[in-house]
Amino acid sequence: MNRLILASASPRRLELLAQIGLVPDKVAPTDIDESRRKDESPRALAERLAREKAAACAEEGYVLAADTVVALGQRNLEKAADEAEAEAFLRLLSGRAHQCITGVAVRAPDGRVNSRTVLARVKMKRLTDAEIAAYVASGEWKGKAGGYGIQGMAGGFVTAINGSYTSIVGLPLYETRMLLVGMGYRM
After folding, report:
1. Residues 6+ apart with CB under 8 A from 35
2. Which of 36, 67, 150, 152 is in the most buried spot, having the most CB atoms within 10 Å?
3. 75 - beta bridge partners?
4. Which residues contact 141 (CB under 8 A, 6 or more apart)?
5. Residue 4: beta bridge partners?
6. Which residues is 47 bridged to in the sheet?
7. 129-182, pLDDT tens digit by residue?
8. Per the structure, how many domains does the chain have?
9. Which is the catalytic residue, given 67, 82, 110, 129?
10. Is 182 helix (H, G, I), strand (E, B) or coil?
11. CA distances from 84 to 74, 75, 91, 143, 160 (A)
12. 55-70 residue pLDDT tens
């Protein structure tokens, strides 16, 4: 059974998969509790959530799941709940470096699960009040960890990246491809 199931509703993950010639047979987002556990590192959180999403998917085939965590030190900046939180996140990230950590998990048809985490370091310029206000007003922050998306307007705020750009967007393509092939998926 060489069916590919994407356990995510993210349009960005679909676009990224298409870049490497993969079109899932089905998109089946899972709904799990994404709360951070006491003393859980951002890296451990990203990997656990990806694994839990893959496990929670009821579809048969190769299930691909991912989760991206934006971390400033040990502080996890989740998806901003509203404009005020998006603005607060951007103020925290302004002029500083932070980490984008994406956990990727693949569940094979036989139930085996394998996962990886990919870390990228992102440095943002010092943002002006006007830049923050314009970005928040754009609405691009909605549904994005850390309250920004590097593939949109916020890409103009980034001064340096160390690591995988596609991981920052939400799915590290090299590691995803290697996980799928390693689990037996025929590309």
Report:
1. none
2. 67
3. 72
4. 80, 86, 89, 90, 135, 147, 148, 149
5. 62
6. none
7. 999 999 999 999 998 999 999 999 999 999 999 999 999 999 999 999 999 999
8. 1
9. 67
10. helix
11. 22, 18, 11, 14, 26
12. 999 999 999 999 999 9
Inside any domain, residue 137: yes
CA distance 102 to 2: 24
9: domain CATH number? 3.90.950.10
First to last CA, the chain: 13
Q: Would residue 81 count as lying in a domain?
A: yes
Question: Is 39 one of the catalytic residues?
Answer: no
- Which stretches within 57-128 are classed as H helix? 83-93
- Give the range of the structural domain holding residue 177, as residue numbers without chain letter: 4-182
Q: CB atoms < 10 A from the CB of 136, how many? A: 21
- Which residues lie below 8 Å from residue 34, measured CB to CB, with a gap of 6+? 49, 67, 78
Backbone angles phi, psi at 163, to 5 degrees: 130, -165
Identify whether the C-beta of residue 133 lies closer than 8 Å to the C-beta of residue 74: no
Query: How far, in Å, CA of 85 to CA of 160, rounded?
Result: 24
Does any domain span residue 187?
no
Q: How many CB atoms lie within 10 A of CB 11?
A: 11
pTM score: 0.92
Residues in the chain: 187
- Give dist(CA 20, CA 55) in Å, integer: 24
Task: Check the CA dihedral 75-78-84-88 and report its sign.
Answer: positive
